[in-house]
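Incident review: delayed structure delivery

Summary: a single-chain prediction request sat in the queue longer than the usual turnaround. Root cause was a stuck worker, restarted by the on-call engineer. No data loss occurred. The affected request and its eventual output are reproduced below so the record is complete for anyone auditing the incident later.

Affected input:
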Amino acid sequence: MDYSFTATGGDGLMPLAISFVGKTFGSDPAASRNLVERLLHPKRMAEHAPSDMHWLAQEASRIAEVDPELVISIYDKVFRHVIKDDSPTQLGRSQILPMTSNRRQDFKLAQWALKEKFPDFMQKHPLAAVSAAVKVARAYRDNEHPLIEAVEVLSVKVGDVEAKLCPDLSYIWAAEHKAQYSDDAQEIVDSFVDRLLQAPDQEAVAFAKHVIATNELGWLWARLFSVAAQRGGALAAMLWPWAAQIEFLQSPDAMKDAVDLVAAGYSDRSTAERIDLENRVSSAGFPNASDPMKAEQRFQRRVFGTIGAEGLATENAKQVLQAAIAQNSSVSNEPLYRGGEAEWIATGNFDWLREKGVDTESAENSPILDAIEASGPKATNDEPPSPRIAGAKVLQARLLHSPLTAHPMTIAHGWEQLTRTIEDVTHKWETVQLLSAEERSFVGSIIANVNTVASLAPLGDPEVGKRCRANLAGAAMNVARLDNAIALEVESSIIALAADSSPDVRFEIAWRLQYLWNVRRQLAWKLVGEFIATEQDARVLLGVVDFLIRAANVEPEHVGAIANGLLSRKDILEDDNRRGLREGVGSLIFHLWVRHGQGGARDAIDHWLANRLENKIELGKGAFYIREGLVLGYEQDNATENATRERCQKLAFEIIDTSALGVEAFMSADANQHTDEKQAEASNDAALLDKMADQFLFAVGPTEIKNGKEPRALRSLDEQRRFIQDNSHTLRRVGDAGIPKTIHYMLQLLDYLMSSAPGPVFDLVSHALLRAGKLHGYQFESLGADLFAKIVGRAIADHREIFTDPVRRVILVETLEVFVDAGWPAARRLLYRLPEALR
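Output delivered after worker restart:
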């Protein structure tokens, strides 16, 4: 590695040098640590982090076996480092698909790799991994959510132990555990939380103590309290005194989870402890709030309401809760921020109105605003609808009888809250079924008067009327699914809203078309026909396509005719949603062909294959869609599934073969014919071949194969042999023209299939390596060399009988020589030992 640091051109050897240091770290830990620390030096990282850190991340597990403290530093430095440079970098050596990335994306791959290795690090070196998670969390906060203004870091003491709490606004940006689009740093914290949930008591307590000693982030405090509330037991007992501190109960970041933990363990606390906590909560102030008295009241109602009247020890706390119940103003322990549109309604924070000059305390405005607060936050899964409906009735009455002097913005947002509540209480199937006849009637009356509501609402905000109509469109479809009678009652409203001037309103109808299937199917088809004929918004049409995919299994002929109408449309708006619609159409057409043998769908696919560059989005999504069909029915003899599988496999071959022909035509052409247009076509063909070929591996399950678990499909040797027989010509075609990444994925699949048919599998492996692999430089890839050595080593050790064929022996030597010439020691060792191994 010293040479790679200093020599001209040494950077080209750095990936190998890092790999060698990782593999031999234990032979001289001190010297190896010094070399890794040189990689982590800020000056080196500023210039080389995108490449160095990718390779260093691959060695993190080996380094951790000897020096876990150094791995903590690797996590810290890699996640603290920021690269904003988007200058292009080259990926791979393919002449056909010159795939490019950029420095920022390359560096992100290193963070991703460390995230992937974190669960193993946590398993083998738990306390070191906890330290790494704290550092990663801190780096993420500093980089992605820095505090604009200086904040006071609070000191909190329980017994002789002192800890820190720093407000970080994580109640906004880290409100949920395992959020859908988490960053790699967030997923590392999620992984720590998962381990904390599952760990034995003694280990969980040790983890928590380690976090308390090293962490100040409200984010991690909240996660500790959340886990403790779920687990109970020793962890809850240890953390309860911390959660009971006013600093945590008042912290926006930790409040929700601290209150949950306090309430969960309240019955286990002594009377003296409960009196002390209730007195501290009652005397807690909010001097910086816009309305300190109201903030204090809400805080007390939140804490005491979550504990429950039966658990409270002081008369004052009981009176606070009784007053809240009497005024229908209970405050549930919901997160302070949910991330949804207009969530100010749920929090009762009307600062934004005050900033616009609205007197929120006036006799004209405050009753409406109080009713908005009382209507409650977004419903939870198990919350009955009746209290929300009662709150909505109060809000409606106050809006209808509001003084003429009430501010228009107050009225407008009151109507918006009312319609949001109606949609929310009907949104979940489990909840809408609980509505009484009288409550259904109330909801129906609001929906039936959508035009009146919309005309009243925009007085303060021209966008509010649109949002009100969108809410009621969703509510109309929500209640229509209950039964045919109710669907008939709201049918006119649904038809009107489906033709609304706003695509946001029409979207709410389109994405719920399946709700009408069992109650008013005729209405669903009517709406579909109108959307297909006139709708120009891609997002709305995508909702229709989703419905058509579902309906195709029952009425394929009907759906096929409608799909043809959609394909003929040329006036759909080109916007950010257009790609999603094209992908949806690709899924629909492929579904109609492989599942139902629709001739019109087959014609469309043939047209796309003849014009691959223009239709790459539809073809790419279609290739992904038929993944499961490639392995369907091998475990049982079902005529329908067999026919579907055969169509999927035949179509996959046609896509791969057609794409391969395009690649081969480009490769065989003279260099002067390699125009930009031809290059684009060949690149697209290579990408389409890659996507289609990958589906064979993903259908079986790459993660399961990698981890030695039961795959998703092809579990028995007999199933695997039949699969190889059915698809050997397709896999061989992949070996003719695939880029290195395509070849690598196929070899992973073949490695799994080796035991079922070693001879045919080896033939496919060697063909791919000697044809497309060699052409595009697969032998120069380190991952490729490792996988090749594994496959060939297995074939020689476990299936040497296949090499009694002299032709196959010659091919084996040729394949080994390709990797020997590329300089890989593992291939050289296999070649030298070959005579003895095959003896």
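Verification: Residues 69 and 128 are 7 Å apart (CA to CA).
Action items: add queue-age alerting; document worker restart procedure.
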